[in-house]
């Protein structure tokens, strides 16, 4: 079970590090909204769902002040979305630099071939309040 979400955690961490820091125009206390999209390999949908549910439980316990929700597509049951809201850039950085590595340390790496394609990850920009 410890190996279940390490790949997710590692993927999120790696992607977050590629995104860099927010521009200077973002207020330090402005919320950060992220969306991760994962597609299970054929026949491994239930395994990915189980691993993602454990990740959500781990993150919610470690970071009770954030929104961290898991969704599954009704149209394609292999598609999962993780919707994340952090109250600040510092909270988002904490998630990437502390919580996800702690998860990986506890649960180990994700099994090979669990995802049909690389994790997709993006930071959303608010258009209104």
Structural summary, described in words:
- Helices cover 40% and strands 21% of the residues.
- With 129 residues, the protein is an alpha+beta fold.
- α1 runs antiparallel to α3 and α2 packs across α3.
- The relative contact order is 0.31.
Short descriptors:
disordered N terminus, alpha+beta, 129 residues, 40% helix, 3 helices, 4 strands
Q: Averaging pLDDT over every residue, what do you get?
A: 84
Number of strands: 4
Following the backbone from N to C, one meets helices and strands in this order, namely HEHEEHE
Low-confidence stretches: 1-25
* Distance between the ends: 40 Å
What gross morphology would you assign? globular
Tell me roughly what share of residues is in helical segments: 25-40%
Itemize the secondary structure elements and their pairings.
Blueprint: H1 6-19, E1 32-39, H2 45-62, E2 67-72, E3 79-86, H3 89-107, E4 120-124
Antiparallel strand pairs: 1-3, 1-4, 2-3
Helix pairs in contact: 1-3, 2-3
Quick gist of this model?
This protein is of the alpha+beta class and 129 residues long. The protein contains 3 helices and 4 strands. 40% of the residues lie in helices and 21% in strands.
């Amino acid at each position: 079970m410890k190996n279940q979400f390490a790949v997710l955690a590692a993927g999120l961490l790696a992607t977050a590090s590629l995104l860099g820091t927010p521009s200077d125009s973002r207020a330090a206390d402005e919320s950060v909204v992220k969306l991760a999209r994962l597609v299970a390999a054929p026949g491994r949908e239930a395994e990915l769902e189980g691993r993602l549910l454990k990740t959500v439980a781990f993150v919610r316990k470690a970071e009770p002040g954030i929104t961290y929700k898991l969704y599954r597509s009704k149209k394609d049951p292999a598609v999962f979305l993780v919707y994340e809201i952090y109250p600040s850039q510092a909270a988002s950085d904490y998630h990437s630099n502390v919580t996800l590595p702690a998860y990986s340390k506890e649960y180990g790496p994700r099994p090979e071939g669990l995802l049909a394609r690389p994790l997709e990850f993006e930071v959303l920009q608010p258009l209104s309040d």
